[in-house]
Amino acid sequence: MTDRLPRIGVLGIMQELYDHMIPGITERQAGYARRVADRLGDVADCVIGEPVKSRADAERAVRGFENDDLDGVLVVMLTYAPSLRVTRIFDRMRLPVCLANIQPDPAVTPAWDMDDMTYNQGIHGAQDTANAMVRAGLPFDVVTEDWQSDAFTERIDRWARAARAVTAWKTLKVGVFGYAMNGMGDARVDESALLRKLGPEVSAIAPGDLHRAMDSLDTTAVEDLMAREDERFEVDARLSKEERDDHARMQLAIEQILTERGIGAYSTHFDAIAEDGRFARLPMASASSLMAKGYGFAGEGDVLAASIVYAGHRLAGDGHFTEMYAMDFPSDSILMSHMGEGNWKVARADEPVRLIKRPLGIGRLDDPPTLLFRIQPGPATLASLVYLGGTDFRLVVAEGEVLDSQELPVLEMPYGQFRPASGVRGCMDAWLRAGGTHHMVMNLGHAAADWKVFCELAGIEFHQV
Fold it and tell me: What keywords are assigned to this protein (predicted)?
């Protein structure tokens, strides 16, 4: 679900005036736009529109980008062009925008003539165009760079991934099996505000639908899933065929429901499953494997966390649902874990992921097969989506590293120790003051700059701690 490159429309803007001054300039600058797109080929699948010279051209090009289900629009000034020709498209733009403040030649030289001045005068067109975007209230990113540099590719890569995540969010459906955990305030959100401001739509799923889907599954599909688990994981010999069969049915049934209803993220709450009375165990391993396939997930009916895990997949790859469990002051780190759900794609490369038989008192059901692993040491980033009321949202972000830390042999759920770059004391003081929630997404690597662009495009306050 997250392997494809972002699909980006390249909107090249110029004006007819220069066709009379410099014959062939349109073809020349169109070639420049193609070279820019080729330069970005490793980070984006670029769709190049014809050079835009009028309001009609601009509106036609953007309608085409939107109808082609692209992720964003990269605006490139091919020459100076008055912004009023594109102002209206910015007033109704649905796709995330980046203004590439670039020019064909990186340096001014004594050999330049007036033609060269015209080819390279995009900067004041960018100023006029950016002014129109600001007046329209359109969120956008800006990249000023030499387009042939690695820095340009890196910055457009960051924006394109953010655009892909934001665009996917606008049509995201988050399924909640049963109901959310009673009394858990930091996961509460006005669902209408979430839909209006950011896009995710919440869809309630009756536990009975899950039960019926489990009963209707083909035995071959269940056996195929267990065979794949045998190949991928170190399977606990204590797990019975009945336990594994039941777990596999839950995972396949959940995925079937998500697929049929167009749902990209989901949440289950242990009480909602347990109180139904028709289920033998909680779907712990299911959450781990579905996250590994690119679905957003959060426990306890937490729609906000499920949404941000989904965004984390598309922004930085392999979003991992987790929470801060306890502080370890001697190592200046925080133990990260949850009840048993975690994306096994962030597991240590030097240790097998284990599918274990695991007693669990929560829910008062039978033992749920659980995927157990330690998180890969190295750079990592945490992000928490906070609802502030009205249509205001904040993203609290912390960079740091997962330590190559001690084993905790009694802990039977995914875990790792995260050392914030700002230290436990500074990070937690700032996290709590910002209202950071107790459920969050972790991505391997330093991704704060990626989340910052994401927030700019989505209209979310960015707060790094």
Answer: Arabinose catabolism, Carbohydrate metabolism, Isomerase, Manganese, Metal-binding
- As a whole number of Å, the CA-based R_g of the chain is 25
The residue range of the domain holding 319 is 173-464
Of 286, 282, 222, the residue nearest 254 (C-alpha): 286
| 273 and 144 inside one domain | no
Cα torsion at 133, 139, 143, 144 (round to 10°)? 40
pTM: 0.95
Residue 2 lies in a domain: no
